[in-house]
Design a protein that fits this description.
By secondary structure, the chain is an alpha/beta fold. It has 14 helices and 12 strands.
Length: about 375
């Protein structure tokens, strides 16, 4: 289980440069990670996870398999996309397939790169993108109301409940606010997801700055970060051109380049971690002589659900999970040491998996 993040933005904000950096990174990883295939508009990259390499070294694993995520380059956004302008229909359909949306926002000044609106204003860009998505959502909900009203009048309780949810979201959208802010109870969450609203998806704001501002950001990115904080979104500062340049370098050259820019790691790493946090994801590990592998799950999942990510039979026939916390695995130099120190636990079906758990599943025949 990885996740799919759609990249959207207006023309000349650096969206294509950022996506090219991602696909170059994926291409560089392809030799080591067999699953790293690239389609024309999809870049699949490994999730940066230093703990995995530590586990692999202790377990003397022959193969290291990180978790992965997809970035999807969503083309075609112009004003009127919600009405089918440009590649509007294709654009909207692709977003529906994504788990989250990354808004690439221009936070750099450059007279040689014209802005489609004739100014540099990342908040205005953000609102242009979001307005098109809200208009598409509003049209989608308006089409549902008549049918739901008819079913509700006939006594259909599910239709009545869905109609109430739809009308709440509709009022919010008409007020110019995205659907993700719709008030809803926990038991309405599934029905809300089934509405497939574009503005219900979690949002990551990517502030594309000049190289000189890559370490600390600038006034433009500070405005975006304040907006993100106010609405519970995530924001990261990245220099897309630097990321593209970094992707073409070997590890030693990357380290030198980053140090010169005052950075500890590529911005793409921060972007991936922000996406994980946004979606409430975490990692558990399996480790042995054959391979060390990272698995992505939702925070709060129980052991059988985590086992099901490996194979559905593991969930259906789950018996127990031999579990070692990451720190214990490292401290006691592997599975055997952790066992001897009494740090391996046998966990049952109700165990909530913790980030970094090293697990081995037992299941029936």
């Amino acid at each position: 289980m990885g996740f799919k993040c759609g990249i959207v933005g207006l023309p000349n904000v650096g969206k294509s440069t950022l996506f090219n950096a991602l696909t170059r990174t994926a291409a560089a990883q392809a030799a080591n990670y067999p699953f790293c295939t690239i389609e024309p508009n999809v870049g699949e990259v490994a999730v940066p996870e230093p703990r995995l390499n530590a586990l692999a070294g202790i377990a003397q694993s022959k193969e290291v398999i990180p978790a992965r995520m997809n970035f999807v380059d969503i083309a075609g956004l112009v004003r009127g996309a919600s009405r089918g302008e440009g590649l509007g229909n294709q654009f909207l359909a692709t977003i529906r397939e994504c788990d989250a949306i990354a808004y690439v926002l221009r936070c750099f000044e450059n007279d040689d790169i014209t802005h489609v609106e004739g100014r540099v204003d990342p908040i205005a860009d953000l609102e242009t993108v979001e307005t098109e998505l809200m208009l598409a959502d509003l049209e989608s909900l308006e089409k549902r109301v008549v049918n739901l009203e008819k079913k509700a009048r006939s006594g259909d309780k599910d239709a009545r409940a869905t109609l109430d949810l739809v009308l709440r979201a509709k009022v919010l959208l008409e007020d110019g606010r995205p659907a993700r802010h719709t008030a809803r109870a926990d038991d309405e969450e599934k029905a809300f997801r089934m509405l497939q609203l574009l503005t219900a998806k979690p949002v990551l704001y990517v502030c594309n700055v000049d190289e000189a501002d890559a370490a600390s950001g600038n006034a433009h990115s500070a405005r975006v970060q304040a907006r993100a904080a106010a609405e519970g979104a995530q924001a990261v500062v990245i220099c897309a051109q630097m990321e593209a340049d970094l992707a073409a370098l070997d590890d030693a050259e990357q380290a030198e380049y980053l140090a010169a820019a005052g950075l500890d790691e590529p911005g793409l790493n921060r972007m991936i971690r922000a996406g994980y946090d946004l979606l409430g994801l975490q990692t558990y590990f399996t480790a042995g002589p054959k391979e060390a592998r990272a698995w992505t799950i939702q925070r709060g999942w129980k052991a059988p659900q985590a086992a099901g990510v490996i194979h559905t039979d593991f969930e259906a026939k789950f018996i127990r999970a031999e579990t070692i916390a990451y720190d214990d695995y490292v401290r006691h130099k592997g599975e055997q040491g952790a066992k001897e120190a009494g740090r391996m636990r046998l966990e049952g079906k109700d165990y909530v998996v913790q980030d970094g758990d090293v697990m081995h599943f037992r299941f029936g025949g």
